[in-house]
Amino acid sequence: MTSVLLGDAHGISVVDFKPFLDGSAKQDVANAILDSFKRVGFVYLINHGIPEEQIQGMFDWSKRFFAQPMEVKQQAPHPPSGTHHRGYSAPGQEKVVQHVYDDNELKDVRAKAPDVKESFECGWEDNAGMPNIWLPDGILPGFKEACTEFYWTCHETELQVLRAITIGLGIGEDYLVKYHHGHDNQLRLLHYPSVPAAQLKDEKITRIGAHSDFGSITLLLQDDAGGLEIEDPNNPGEFKSAPPVAGALAVNAGDLMMRWSNDVLRSTVHRVRAPPNAKTIDGMVPDRYSIPYFCSPKLTAVVECLPGTYTAGEPPKYHPISAGEYILRRLASNY
């Protein structure tokens, strides 16, 4: 495993994914990934298969989109419904909140420290149940095509990571792949505007509050600004930096994967704060850009604990559940 394990970033393993992709050391890579997921719920992958030029191109498109005037971006508006994650959300519009279902309580929580970020979200172009919301034709030509191409490029890497997970668990390589056709994934472009460092430190505003992801896995590309933090699995409530690693794709397990794996894999709470030792300009924390790709199984899939994650003496902790029922319930409570 030492040849594929390249290092450690604050407890998160940095793994060379190339020997998995070329087949030269699949088991070693799978074991290294699974070990990191078991310990901290995150892993960094080097040589992950997403072309660097395509990544830089997508970040360029993201910056061009967010640089548009507000009245232009608002022509692709995110619907009021928390279950329709498509289109543009302005800074302060969205507040990540978990397990709060009372409308009045939600309003109070969101008013205390708004999430100062803006986002654009898209999914499978032919999803009639959750159609994409694009800018009108003629505005930022090429943006739609770049997003849809990148969406499917990320899906190919998603499938490889799922194969690594199942190999690490000692079950069939395509056991999870068969449930993930890419039709229920979500590509999100995120921009965290420059904000006063003092307000971030005092939590008068947040970039994104503490939360866990609800799907199978999340692929995350980020710039070098920093600020991502993960909760210490051994010390709940304490967070540590998950610093950007040059050339790496960060991957984390979601709540559904934790349930699917009978809690063998961790779904770790994470957040975005002011980067440690951030270089401020006139008291302002610099902008941050990131691109998460949220991966979910087809909504008709029945999620029940994976083979090998339970025994007669240690039975499954969870009853089978429809992926659609689980995900839609979580979508409604996280916006």
UniProtKB/TrEMBL annotation:
Pfam family, one: 2OG-FeII_Oxy
Database matches in InterPro entries: DIOX_N (IPR026992), IPNS-like_FE2OG_OXY (IPR044861), IPNS-like_sf (IPR027443), Oxoglu/Fe-dep_dioxygenase_dom (IPR005123)
GO MF term (any one): dioxygenase activity
Entry-linked SUPFAM superfamilies: Clavaminate synthase-like
Occurrences of domain Fe2OG dioxygenase (ranges): 183-297
Keyword annotations: Dioxygenase, Iron, Metal-binding, Oxidoreductase
Family recorded in the similarity comment: Belongs to the iron/ascorbate-dependent oxidoreductase family.
Origin species: Lentinus brumalis
Protein name, entry field: Thymine dioxygenase
Lineage: Eukaryota, Fungi, Dikarya, Basidiomycota, Agaricomycotina
